[in-house]
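worker-03 picked up job from queue 'complexes'. Input manifest follows; two sequence lines, order preserved.
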Amino acid sequence: MNRIAPVGADPLAVVERPLSHWERLWGHAPLRRGVILVLLALLWQTYGILANNPLMFPSFSATATAFSDAIIRGTLLKKAWTSVQVLLLGYGIGMSIAFVLAGLAASTRIGEDILATLTAMFNPLPAIALLPLALLWFGLGTPSLLFVLVHAVVWPLALNTSAGFAAVSETLRMAGRNYGLSGWRYVARILVPAAFPAILTGLKVGWAFAWRTLIAAELVFGVASGSGGLGWFIFENKNRLETDYVFAGLGTVILIGLLVEGLIFRTIERHTIRKWGMQR
Amino acid sequence: MPFDAGPPLLAAEGLTLQYKTRTSLVTATWRVDVAAGRGERVVLLGPSGCGKSSLLKCVGGFLPPVEGRVMLAGREVTAPGPDRMMVFQEFDQLLPWKTVRGNIEFPLIQARPGWSRRHIADKAALYMDKVGLSKFAESHPHQLSGGMKQRVAIARAMAMEPEILLMDEPFASLDALTRRRMQEELLQLWLDTRFTLLFVTHSIEEAIIIGSRIVVLSPHPGRVKAVLDSDFAADDALGPTHSQALQDEISAMLFSDRFENGSGI
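worker-03 finished. Artifact:
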């Protein structure tokens, strides 16, 4: 008669074993990324000290001091807020235009052709290249910034949204029409949620394009609506040769980018496409 | 016969269906008649290319006929509508962003604007219970197995209490054991509510299990070859020997057709 050998002695023969503290900590992605950031900061600090040239390459600690100083006593927060305000306005306008275009493309064939042609033409054109023209048309000020921002947002978002609509399966479309849905109700209740992963990608790409474009545009002419934004902050400090403040400005650009990506978009993802099993 | 006399609930008369592919115009069916009385389970059976799915799409209102018309309860079918609920073969027919409960309630909310939310919730709960998915009410479709997804699709269609249920090979993507169980469950549901069913399949066995009437179609273009009565679910007198005989009869019919066309195996 065969008997099952006792397994107690073999360390591999356990049903379930709690992972050690280290294994659990290392499974935590934000922690791993935090460690990478700390290592980068150390590397930066070491090189900054060795180079010993604060004019060209301020160390990490000098940048951090400049950063806190600019926040507490300077105008960094106010300038960042100016930039974000302009950005949100441009992003909103761009979003509305993109959704109208994508909606037209989803419902009519000629709309689809119009969108395909326009995106093919304008998507490869860097938004910042339109700035000289915008300055000519709208002058120095927020309207010019908005013009290039809208251009930065509309094309990637419209392209992704309409690709998302096109990828909605025939079965799901038929199911939607089976319920008697048509027109905008069909677009809003079937196509938009079904294409949401692609729409979210478009929103992210549009956001990244818009943020870069805005900072670049501010570097060129800076003062809009009285105070000027982050790009202007960087430009001003470069002119005064306060390189540590330039670094602090760049750091703020990165930080805001990370915050939007990591906090806002990640949260939207978790509550939508991840929950729905449309993305892992 | 337990069915109403007079005009049948569904009457497809002289349907010629054509669709365009990238390179050619294909005639899917040629002057086909199909009828279904209230409470009947009509199965469209045939090999691929016989236009059975096109017929179902036409009844669903998705494919306008080139010739002939579809009458449902005295009205001509011209567009898709919630009085003919479809159940598809594909698992992605459910809305992935809604829970099981949400998927069943959604068509009711859209198509029955007069109903209160309370009434809709009760309806959804009732049919969720009928397909045995009450425990999974708050799950999203991606968390369900294939068989469960098809049950949700069936519950969603039945909760609408449509004039007729249209099923396009709903069990074809399931494994053999699950398929068998789903066929039995469907018959149980029919015994319970006596819905009218138009069911498409290419499996002779499935046609005999499901159908109270089997419309055998021949391919290229689709035409009606025979209409056979076979109510095994309702009539216990028809035993397994009869079922086997019917199966042989149908396969002889379908295979002879292949030899006639010179495109045998």
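worker-03 released lock.
Chain A has one domain: 60-271.
The first helix of chain A runs from residue 21 to 26.
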